[in-house]
Specification:
Chain lengths: 107, 107
């Protein structure tokens, strides 16, 4: 493994951007609707979620599907490239569960 | 896997902070000296490297060892908790190699 790799750097910046990791985790666990995604991450504004979803779409990780029903149904799902992040999310989650302590919720 | 986990969120923020992922990768591949770490990441200033190393030390991922030789030798190595990130770094690197294209260097 080389000490530095631009692709690794780009990947970590995509995943590490504020809330992107949490949104990807929520999508991986099967959350597809905007309102449900918004509820998943405490403290994330709708505006930021919308921005992040657009970025993830532009990066080829997420697909936005619009069903022309009444009301219109909008769903966000992972592309195969996005689904492949499951191993990354799992390895981070496993490390966090082993090494990080649970902090009391901020009051 | 829960849709949201504060420990996962903390882990991803630790790793995803600008240059932290690259510094961790350099440490994992056996780079220990400040000057070598600084050379590893193109575009990272010494001041920022110093700041990130202090953060990684405070988070328990990195140990700073000072050998009182002439000149003084300072080495940075990973703690067991830091070394355990190898699986995370490898999973991100593997994903990046599979899904991200090599971009031409910025001119």
């Amino acid at each position: 493994m080389a000490a530095y790799c631009p692709r690794y750097q780009r990947a970590i910046e995509m995943i590490g951007r504020r809330w992107s990791g949490a949104i990807l985790r929520a999508l991986i666990t099967g959350t597809t609707h905007f309102a449900d995604l918004a509820r998943t991450v405490p403290g994330m504004s709708d505006r930021l979620l919308s921005e992040r979803l657009k970025e993830l779409e532009a990066e080829g990780l997420v697909v936005r599907t619009v069903t022309p029903s009444t009301p219109v149904r909008i769903e966000y799902t992972l592309t195969p490239m996005g689904q492949a992040l499951l191993t990354v999310v799992e390895s981070i989650a496993g490390w966090a569960e082993t090494y990080l302590e649970v902090e009391p919720a901020a009051t």
